[in-house]
Amino acid sequence: MSPSPTIAANSPAIVLTEIIEMGGAERSCLALARWLYEHGMPPHFVTYQDKVGIERFASHPLPVVQLKPQMDARHKIAALREYFAARTHPKPLMSGYQPSLHGTLAGMRGFHCLMHDTPSLFSDANEDQSAKKRLARWVSDTAVARGLKSGGSTIVTSEYLKAETMRVFGVEAAIARMGGLSQPDAFRPRPVGKTLRMFSVSRIEGNKRVDWMVRALADLERDATPLSRRIEWRLDVAGKGSGLEKMRELAASLGLSQRIVFHGFVTDEHLEQLYSEADLFLMPAVQGYGIPAIESLSRGIPVLLHRESGVSDILLNTPWATVMEGGEEAMVPALKSAIDKVIDGTQLKVPLPELPTEDGWAERIAKLCGWA
Questions:
Q1: What are the structural domains of the chain?
Q2: Residue 87 region, left (φ>0) first, then alpha (ψ -120 to 50), else beta?
Q3: What is the pLDDT of residues 208-247, one digit of tens each?
Q4: How far apart are CA 132 and CA 138, in angstroms?
C-alpha cells in the first residue's frame, strides 16, 4: 500500500478498483466528491492503482489511497479487506460492478453501490461466450448479488438499469438521474448557419455505434437530394478507443474523410470549442445513461439518441431530442428527422426541458448512502 494521506475517520470512501482513464464513472465520482467536500463531508478515493493522477482533476483537496497490491484477484481482494477492516463506518460506496464483486469477496457487507453498467452493457455482452465464461459470469453475478443484498443502497441512473439490476441481482435499485457538468452560463439558442455542425463524443467502441453515424451520413449523401446540396455539413467525433482507426478507414472508404473528422483524445479546452460550434449532438449508443446528452442540451444543442441510452427516459416528449428505436436500419430516418428539425429550428419554439443537475444527483447519492 502507498503511504496514506491523512484521512478523517468519518470520511466517506468511494472505491474505484483501477483508475486508468478519465471516463464517465471517474467524472461522476469526482462530481460526487466535490459536492461532499463543499457540504462539509470531505471524502477520499480508494483504488488499487491510479494511472491518471485523478486528484489533478478535482477542484478541491482529494486524498487518493492507492492500495498497490500485486495485480491479481487474490491480492487485490486481500488489500481491500485489509484497508476496510479498520474502517467500518461510514459504509463505503463501490463505483460499479467490479468493486462490488471484490468487496463482497473481501467479506465487506452493507456497502453501497453506484451501478454504472450491468453485465448486459459490458464490452463482451454481445460476443458469443463459451459455457465456461457464461458459468464464470453467473458465479460473479451471484456473488455481487450477495453483497448488494447485505444492507446498503444500490443506485442506478435509469429505468433500464433499474430493471436490469432486479433481473440480474434480484435487487431493488434507487434511481438518481445524473446531470451534466455544471455550466450555468452555457445555454444559448443555436440557429443553424451556413454549415450544419454535428458532434459526438465517446470512446470509439462497438456499442457506441459510431459506424451507424458514418454509414447513415453516407446514405444521406447518396440520396436523390444529397445532404450537402441542402446544406454544407461536418461531423466532429471526439474520443479514442480500439475502433478509432477502423472508423477513420470507414469514413475514407465512403468518401467522407473531408467531412467527418475523428479527433481522438481532446483536451478540455478543445472539447469546449467543439461543443460551442455544434448544432446537433449524435449519440446512438447503447449505454446505462449518457451524460453527454444532458451536457449538450444544457448548452442548447439538440440531440439524437437511442432509446437504449438510459437518459432517453426523460427526453421522450421534447423536440429538443430525437429518440430512435430499433437497429441500424432506423438510423437514416432518425438522422434525417433530427437534421430537418434542427435546420427548421423546431426546438427553438419550445422551452428546454427540465434537466437533472450534477448537484441534485450528488445530494441524492449522499442521502441514499446515509452520509447526509
A1: 13-179+360-368 (3.40.50.2000), 195-349 (3.40.50.2000)
A2: beta
A3: 999 999 999 999 999 999 999 999 999 999 999 899 999 9
A4: 10
pLDDT, tens digit, 9 for 90 and up, residues 114-147: 999 888 777 665 566 788 888 889 999 999 999 9
Closest CA to 168 of 138, 147, 127: 138
DSSP letters spanning 94-137: EESHHHHHHHHHTT--S-EEE----GGGSTTTTS---HHHHHHH
Cell numbers placing 62: 482529494
CA distance 202 to 20: 16
* Nearest-angstrom CA–CA distance, 88 and 158: 30
Furthest CA-CA distance within the chain: 70
**Torsion 222-228-231-234 (CA) sign:** positive
List the one residue out of 205, 209, 365, 199 whose CA is nearest residue 292: 199
The rounded distance, in Å, linking the Cα atoms of 80 and 68 is: 10
Burial, 71: exposed, middle or buried (Cβ in 10 Å; 0-12, 13-18, 19+)? exposed
What is d(CA 281, CA 72) in angstroms, rounded to the nearest whole number?
A: 40
Q: Torsions phi, psi of 201, nearest 5?
A: -135, 125
- Which H/E stretch holds residue 164? helix 159-169
Grid coordinates standing for 232? 454544407
Sheet strands (E) in 18-87:
18-19, 44-47, 49-50, 64-66
pTM: 0.82
